[in-house]
From TrEMBL:
<protein>
    <submittedName>
        <fullName>Undecaprenyl-diphosphatase</fullName>
    </submittedName>
</protein>
<dbReference type="InterPro" id="IPR036938">
    <property type="entry name" value="PAP2/HPO_sf"/>
</dbReference>
<keyword id="KW-0472">Membrane</keyword>
<feature type="transmembrane region" description="Helical">
    <location>
        <begin position="60"/>
        <end position="78"/>
    </location>
</feature>
<feature type="transmembrane region" description="Helical">
    <location>
        <begin position="107"/>
        <end position="128"/>
    </location>
</feature>
<feature type="transmembrane region" description="Helical">
    <location>
        <begin position="158"/>
        <end position="176"/>
    </location>
</feature>
<dbReference type="Pfam" id="PF01569">
    <property type="entry name" value="PAP2"/>
</dbReference>
<feature type="domain" description="Phosphatidic acid phosphatase type 2/haloperoxidase">
    <location>
        <begin position="60"/>
        <end position="173"/>
    </location>
</feature>
<dbReference type="InterPro" id="IPR000326">
    <property type="entry name" value="PAP2/HPO"/>
</dbReference>
<keyword id="KW-0812">Transmembrane</keyword>
<keyword id="KW-1133">Transmembrane helix</keyword>
<feature type="transmembrane region" description="Helical">
    <location>
        <begin position="27"/>
        <end position="48"/>
    </location>
</feature>
Amino acid sequence: MLQSLIELDQQFFLWLNGLHSDWLDPIMLAITGRNIWIPLYAVILFLVIRKLKWQSWSMILAFTLLITLADQAASGFFKPFFERFRPCHEPAIQDMVHLVKHCGGQYGFASSHASNTFALAFFLFFIYRNFYARCMIVWAMLVSYSRIYVGVHYPGDIIMGAILGLLAAIITYHLYKRIFPNHLEKIHSIV
């Protein structure tokens, strides 16, 4: 059963990864890179600080906890525990992988990019539940797909990363709601 899922994941990866175009490679490489995230995070942080003023430390603390939970679950636990090769390191298929730049670390299950981006997207969605929060979920999906496109993650890596991100967002949101209930009223009107 598990072997069948792994083979299905590989086949789905090869199909998705095979849908590449030369003109799209630099775009997906930019989307998957971390530098593109900086302006977005800066805007989110600016809006939080502008609205909450001195109380923004609570949201910054929540963001720190959120990303720490999501990233450590994926990179600190899942990758070393499962030791599943990235597609670009998997001997059986690595010659079939369209690799846009470099492969990265040896193991890929679960995707840290997916875990971190979905954690932030779901956390913001739980707080705001508006159009912009929904756009963040679409953004997380695009970043996650870019990891398949550039050849460094299987769809299963992405799905598990998204699940870990969702769990980190649920935990952080409920802790925030319990510890800082008065801050949520102010936060709801930020965007």
